[in-house]
Amino acid sequence: MKREIKFRAYIRDEGRLLNVNLIDFDDEYVRVWDEYGENEEEWFLKDCELIQYTGLKDMNGVDIYECDVVRFDTNVQILESEVTYYHGMFTIKKYGEKIPLFTALKVIGNKFENPELLGVEE
To answer: For the whole model, what pTM was predicted?
Structure first.
């Protein structure tokens, strides 16, 4: 089974999270669509943080990317945590443990645009 490879780029100086349509590692830039999906922009890789698609969707069909914050039910409590890549797989980072992704997840934001979901104040 092939996994679709997609990226988003967080433009640090502007605080924008945009969909990537080209990554040029030789010339070290990324081409992204603007917020409206109408115009292309180019940014140097050093000015961006690339965020990879996990190949999974949440319970509502929303693509799950690294750095997304997801809500999930452990049957004991409802938790919110960040999706991260660890030792060759995407995991949920919570309380120092790395938990593999599973299907009962709901994307509720991301660490860039919603740091408060992780208890981080700007």
So the answer is: 0.81
